[in-house]
Amino acid sequence: MLESQWLAAAKQNSSYRAARDSDFIRLADITSFIRQRILLIMTCPFFGLLSSGFYVATTDSIFTARTQILIEPKIPELLQKQSSEINLSLDTSQIETQLAVLRSEKIAGMVIEELSLIDDPKFKPQTLSITERFERIAEMVGEAFGVKEGSQIQTSPPPSTVAGATETPDITVEALEFLRRRRAVETFSEGLRVQRVGVSYAIDITFNSLDPVLAAKVANATAGAFVREQVETRTASAQEGVDWLEKRIEEVRIQMNLATQMTQEFRAKHDYRVGRQLGATIVDGQVAPSGEEESAEPTGPTLEELEVTAETYRRMYESLLAGFTNSVNQQPFLIADARVITPATRPLAPSQPRKKLVLALGLLAGLMAGIGLAFARHTLDRTIRTPRQIRDELGLNCVGELPAARILGGFGQLDDVLRHPKSPFSLSLRSIRAAISLADVAHPLRCIGVTSVSPGDGKSTVASNLAALYAVSGVRTLVIDADIFHSALTNRLLYARASAGENLDNIKEQIRFVPGPQFDLLPSHVSAAHRLITPKHMEALIDELESYEAIIVDLPPFTSGVHVLAAASVLDGVLIVTEWGKTPFDLVAELSRILQVTKTNVIGVVMTKVRCLSTRQYRGRVTQAAS
Fold this sequence. Notes:
Number of strands: 14
Transmembrane segments: 38-57, 357-376
Number of domains: 3
CATH architecture of the largest domain: 3-Layer(aba) Sandwich
CATH topology of the largest domain: Rossmann fold
Strand order of the largest sheet: 7-14-13-8-12-9-11-10
Low-confidence stretches: 1-22, 78-83, 149-169, 292-296, 616-627
Strand content: 5-15%
CATH class of the largest domain: Alpha Beta
Number of helices: 22
Subcellular location: Cell membrane
Oligomer: single chain
Membrane topology: Multi-pass membrane protein
Mean pLDDT: 78
Radius of gyration: 51 Å
Keywords: ATP-binding, Cell membrane, Membrane, Nucleotide-binding, Transmembrane, Transmembrane helix
Pfam family, one: GNVR
């Protein structure tokens, strides 16, 4: 019932929040973020570098051979005779056409056939799986340590073998050969790169291969096939023109002979009638009959018309014969518009993988991933980590940051402040005591409570060491173990247990002196017997113990229930202990609200097990004092 009322009251008074100093990100915030997440930020680049190194170590070296050809515009012979200053240029579409020819399957087929690449094992690509990459790494490690493994890495079988094994038995030899050729063409297209050099007429031809010698051969063969393809294309076109001229010359010759014969017959007869008609159809070199009967009346061309026709056919014949002669004479001198200006040579170093670039990219990608993950985790993290977070979100002061007392883990012993007085933990605790002394000068804090959200936050260690500081300074100090649910102080400082017949009515008789820390301790079983967790009994006990100058009360944690914190209202002040990076912020805020509802004076918050101290000057003082 009491717990429900306090929770309701806490929700009604949850509007308090201290004004934030600034909404801008400061350099100190960035530095604190890096210090807190440095492990995650540095782990991701390490794995990124490891992954890129694994890729580089298990990837075959690829060599790139480069050749260069020049496309020259062809100037027509007529323009060459007219002026020597005429300069024809190729536009972009013409250059792109030449590039398309270089990338065509016709060029690929010519190169594959010339170099017999279908049967060349070095030409076939090799794609490694993750398992094969790990096997390759194992083999490298074995070779480095001189261990020879019994099973060698099996390379992937040729594509043709795989295809033949997976296909049905009914597949024909022609189909297998077609598949092999298609895979060779695809491999050739994947390794070939063709591009124009700037805005010039030069074209770069590069080819990638696992073998540097083969890469140079394929690049040179590609350039040669392109030049040879141009010559063959022009030769075929010229041959077609010659064949057409031969056929046309034969037809014109027959027409010319027929016209001459008709002219001679006309002159011999001295007649206007001619037995053959001009323009008769010629079939297989003979004049085909027209199928019309000769007219009874004398009709036909005149002598002048026959002579003109015969002369016309003679000139046509001479023109065609001259063109035929020129075509036959020029055919052996056909040249291509492209020429090789830089032949490919054997590359000395592999072009891929670019080891330094891959490693740098892996490192950069890992760093970016680490920063992204750290930022995401920082955004989603709702635990107490910085004093500014306590001040801005809770409106409370962070009176101290206690680092871990031991490097390998743990928060420290109950008397570490006496065992190691120069340690960062002890110096931090002394700063906390000074902050408590300055909390209220008009009314010194005599009764101080120490509580936390959960049992593992280190509140008992803080209470014990704080009491030890008071005790060694000459202040008579009493520690009340009011945490009846865990009793860390009683179990670790007092080895004797309460007997069944022991009288617990007299509280002063139950107080035990602790030799090491040199303070008095009221065990937890006495606190449970007298119900010191209630304000009334706690206040009566404090009035009874007037001889003590400082009383430290180890209160139960917040997770034990709200009602167990009722005794905090009669104390002069309460310290809230939180574990750095573990204590949820929402629970601390709820604990703070409940203490405010009960009119409890909250001195501040103490962070324990801090891995990254937030104050540079404080760290400097700690280092100087420790040295």
